[in-house]
Every structure is written in C-alpha cells, then in structure tokens.
C-alpha cells in the first residue's frame, strides 16, 4: 500500500506499509492435520471399506483403528489443514480439538462392548485426547502481526531513498 504524504517542488514523500502474520499455532495445526489425515488413510487402506466399517481393527502406529475411525480422522485432518491456511480460520482447529478431547474422554469411559460396536479401543481414545489437545493448544496460541512502514523520499530526477523506517508488532 502506498500513500502520498507530502510534496514540494523538489521532493515527494511516500509511505509504504506492509505486514504479515506469524503463528506457531498454525504450524502446529497444519502438522497435526497432515499426520491425522495420513493415519486415517493408512487405517482405511489396512482395514478396507468393503464390509462393516467398524471391523476389523487394525494397528496404525500402535493405535487401533477401524475404517470408520480412519474416515473421521481424514475429515478432521483435512479441516485442520484448511483451518491452518489462514489466521482467521485457525479457530477451527481449536473447535475440532475440543470435540476430539471430549470424544476421547467419553471413549475411555465407555464399556468394551460399546468400543467394539463403534470400532475402537482404549488406545484410540487416548490418541483422540492427545491429538485433540495438540489441536486445541495450536488453535488457541496467540499470533504475531508485524507491520513495517517506510517513508521514501523521491527526488525530481526519480531517485529515491528511504528516510524513515518503523516496525510495529501486535499479538492477536
């Protein structure tokens, strides 16, 4: 963005403002979403979708999965990747993480029969609590917005020189 702030017969002064976000939370959310999506794909590949989605249970990185759990992980992972795409959609990961933590806690408290009917076990429930907590923290970490303002002096021959530079940082 460029603004004309002063002009006299010899020199024109212009300001240029630029800025951008840095968010460690978005990086955490992106990585969690990618890993979750890959685990879901591996679960579907190993368990298959040709019959009941809740059986068989397969082991993916020491966590028991059914095809149904794999589908849920793919959906949640893709939403987290999309949520990491912009600072304004990062809260999506916090919401998904909260739902995952609640589902994991309920899963840990459920009976073995209910776990078998849904297609998971205790390791799946603990994994949901783990990745849900990571997503929740990543979605709630503050971001840093940095803005730079340059004042440029342009002489009558077109040569320019930056005469003032200012940086501002904001936590959001």
Q: What does this entry look like structurally?
A:
The protein is of the alpha+beta class and 172 residues long. It has two domains: 2-21 and 145-171; 24-142. Helix content is 50%, strand content 27%. It has five helices and six strands, in the order E-E-H-E-E-H-H-H-H-E-E. The protein has helices spanning 24-47, 67-83, 91-109, 112-118, 122-140; strands spanning 2-7, 12-22, 58-60, 63-65, 144-154, 160-171. Strands 1-2-5-6 form a four-stranded antiparallel beta sheet, with no helix packed on it. A two-stranded antiparallel sheet has the order 3-4. A hairpin with a 4-residue loop joins strand 1 and strand 2. Helix 1 (24-47) runs antiparallel to helix 5 (122-140), helix 2 runs antiparallel to helix 3 and helix 3 packs antiparallel against helix 5 (122-140). The two termini are 22 Å apart.
Per-chain topology:
Elements lengths: L1 E6 L4 E11 L1 H24 L10 E3 L2 E3 L1 H17 L7 H19 L2 H7 L3 H19 L3 E11 L5 E12 L1
Antiparallel strand pairs: 1-2, 2-5, 3-4, 5-6
Helix pairs in contact: 1-2, 1-5, 2-3, 3-5
Mean of residue pLDDT?
85
Q: Count up the helices.
A: 5
Major β-sheet strand ordering: 1-2-5-6
Main sheet record = 4 strands, antiparallel
- What structural class should be given to the helix and strand makeup? alpha+beta
Q: What gross morphology would you assign? A: elongated
Helix content: 40-55%
How many domains, in number, for the residues? 2
Strands, total number: 6
Secondary-structure element series: EEHEEHHHHEE
Radius of gyration, in angstroms, nearest whole number: 25 Å
Beta-strand content: 25-35%
Terminal CA distance: 22 Å
> Ranges with pLDDT <50 over ≥5 residues?
none
